[in-house]
Amino acid sequence: MPGQFSSAPVPEGRIEKLSDGFALAFDRQFDYPAAHIWDILTNPEKISLWLGQVNPEWQLGKEYTLDMDGGTSSGTVLQLEPRSSLQITWEDQLGSDSVLEWQVLESSGGALLLFRSRTDTPDFLAEGSAGWQGILDAFAHVAAGTEPQPDSMEQWLTLRDAYAKDFDISPTMGLVTGSGRDAELVFERWYRAPSEDVEAAADAASRRLNLGAEARMEMADDGDETRLTLHQPVTGSQDQTAELLAAWHVTLDAVRDQLDGSMPHPNSHRLAALEQFYRSMV
Q1: Overall domain count for the chain
Q2: Which among 12, 54, 2, 7 is positioned nearest to 163, based on CA atoms?
Q3: 212 torsion bin: left (phi>0), alpha (psi -120 to 50), beta (else)
Q4: Secondary element (H or E) of residue 37
Q5: How far apart, in whole angstroms, are the C-alpha atoms of residue 49 and residue 121?
Q6: In whole angstroms, what is the distance from residue 173 CA to residue 94 CA?
Q7: Comparing 39-43, 95-99, 143-147, 182-186, which segment has the lowest mean pLDDT?
Q8: pLDDT in the model for residue 7
């Protein structure tokens, strides 16, 4: 995920719970003219420096594709008002949909950039919030004429966890920690249910996919929410590790669905997309 953070990253955005989903909001003040900020936002050469290669350039009502480090996205430009606002749909490689909006406002001594991302699911919301903060940091570097620096995974994880804690949003993504014989995959998921219900749902879901023989689950129940942490040794190839991460990902999603009272529906397309996503990560 592109961008860069300070040595002790803290959330600069806010996650708002809406009646029909969630909104991520950032407000960034710049000491540059609004025209300059608009150019960074819409000039394809500048976009490539902080976000990715967009093709074609943003055009009202037209579809686009965006190639970024670690993935691609696509969508349609819904609104394009020169030097004012840009709104696009955004579909990532996992098939998740959201609507992104940037507004550029004249302000005292410069310009105010408002960014909003709206989605109907909390999936990858903590991760995405940390990622967009890094992207907006990269935007600020480009606006200042300096070169964005690569992310630190440790800083990104620290920021992801801070967003999760501050806004009570469960982390979504699994990770591989350690190396060699000490390597293991780790997931942390938060469920609003008693620990015994979470454990029963996790056992049932893992049996359906024939998972869990070497897995270890830790439960922390505060009465309102159970935080499940899953550990499993990694012993296979990178492809096998990606497949295992994807399988556990959909299993833990199924736990959420079951606890919410809905029937889990296996989705081979999403499983394949998750395998590709994790393959790029490991």
Answers
A1: 2
A2: 12
A3: left
A4: helix 34-42
A5: 29
A6: 12
A7: 95-99
A8: 59
* Range(s) of the domain holding residue 225: 175-281
Is residue 192 situated within a structural domain? yes
Chain CA centroid to CA 260, Å: 22
Residue 80, classed as helix, strand or coil, is strand
Where among 167, 192, 220 does a domain terminate?
Answer: 167
Q: Between 217 and 71, whose confidence is greater?
A: 217
| Cβ atoms of residues 271 and 246 within 8 Å | yes
pLDDT higher than threshold 90 for residue 280: no
Place of tokens 């990858």: 124
- Within 8 A by CB and 6+ apart from 166, the residues are 11
| Residues 205 and 131 reside in one and the same domain | no
Strands (E), the chain: 14-18, 21-30, 53-55, 63-68, 71-81, 85-92, 97-107, 110-119, 175-177, 184-191, 216-221, 226-233
* Residue 70 vs residue 103, higher pLDDT: 103
Question: Does the pLDDT value for residue 234 go beyond 70?
Answer: yes
Q: What is the CATH number of the domain that holds 116?
A: 3.30.530.20
The pLDDT tens digits of the residues spanning 59-90 come to 999 999 999 876 889 999 999 999 999 999 99
Q: Which letter, b or e, does each residue of 104-113 get, where b requires 16 or more Cβ atoms within 10 Å of its Cβ?
A: bbeeeebbbb
Measured distance CA(127)–CA(251) in Å, rounded: 19
Contact call for residues 66 and 52 (beta carbons, < 8 A): yes
Interval 198-214: pLDDT, tens? 999 998 888 877 776 78
- Is 187 domain-assigned? yes
Question: Would you say residue 2 lies in a domain?
Answer: no
The length of the chain is 282
Q: How far apart are CA 58 and CA 74, in angstroms?
A: 12
Which tokens in the block code for residue 95?
A: 């098939």
